[in-house]
């Protein structure tokens, strides 16, 4: 019986300490969360870093540390090839802290996330079309940006990728003997750009090609 009560007392004491630890993790100064974010980024523990950011942003929404942490997390997710999360942070930064001085840089970062995600979405028509629209918009709006050369390079790569996608879809219609579909998708190919750039067809292993389209 004494063993039971001793065990129960230990359990209560343990739960009490655990609750204190849980309580202690809230209502911390902004610098506590900020330092935690960068510590976790350093070790690439981005899920924990994201959680620390949530606490920073909910407890200290007007802190000047919020935008710095937001941008750092976007770049960390980009480095870790978590492109959707990277784009999320860049989008949020643009909405909340974008201004005429930094907007081209922020949009460039967002386009970078899309560019690196290109391989994963090479057959996604909507992704390709939307990204090309974003790239065209950047070139039109910021022709004198210091990032214009990089953006124009991405623009060419995406258009060539879209050309290849359109040819692949046209090939599907050709196999089904649907001439209108073939004509429609081949009509979307930018022949002029292809003549200027002489692109090489994307390499596709035979075991992938067997199931392609």
TrEMBL record:
<feature type="domain" description="Outer membrane lipoprotein BamD-like">
    <location>
        <begin position="45"/>
        <end position="179"/>
    </location>
</feature>
<keyword id="KW-0732">Signal</keyword>
<dbReference type="InterPro" id="IPR039565">
    <property type="entry name" value="BamD-like"/>
</dbReference>
<protein>
    <submittedName>
        <fullName>Outer membrane protein assembly factor BamD</fullName>
    </submittedName>
</protein>
<dbReference type="InterPro" id="IPR011990">
    <property type="entry name" value="TPR-like_helical_dom_sf"/>
</dbReference>
<dbReference type="Pfam" id="PF13525">
    <property type="entry name" value="YfiO"/>
</dbReference>
């Amino acid at each position: 019986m004494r063993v039971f009560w001793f065990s129960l007392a230990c359990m209560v004491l343990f739960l009490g300490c655990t609750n204190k630890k849980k309580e202690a993790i809230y209502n911390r100064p902004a610098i506590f969360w900020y330092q935690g974010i960068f510590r976790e980024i350093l070790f690439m523990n981005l899920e924990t870093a994201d959680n620390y950011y949530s606490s920073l942003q909910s407890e200290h929404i007007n802190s000047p540390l919020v935008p710095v942490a937001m941008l750092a997390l976007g770049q960390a997710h980009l480095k870790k090839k978590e492109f959707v999360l990277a784009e999320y942070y860049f989008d949020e930064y643009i909405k909340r802290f974008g201004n005429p001085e930094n907007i081209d840089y922020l949009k460039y970062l967002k386009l970078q996330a899309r560019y690196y995600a290109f391989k994963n979405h090479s057959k996604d028509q909507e992704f390709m079309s939307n990204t090309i629209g974003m790239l065209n918009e950047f070139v039109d709006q910021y022709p004198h940006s210091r990032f214009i050369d990089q953006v124009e390079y991405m623009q060419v790569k995406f258009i060539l990728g879209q050309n290849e996608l359109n040819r692949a879809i046209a090939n599907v219609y050709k196999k089904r003997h649907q001439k209108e579909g073939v004509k429609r998708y081949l009509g979307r190919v930018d022949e002029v750009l292809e003549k200027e750039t002489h692109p090489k067809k994307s390499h596709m292993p035979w075991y992938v090609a067997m199931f392609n389209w």
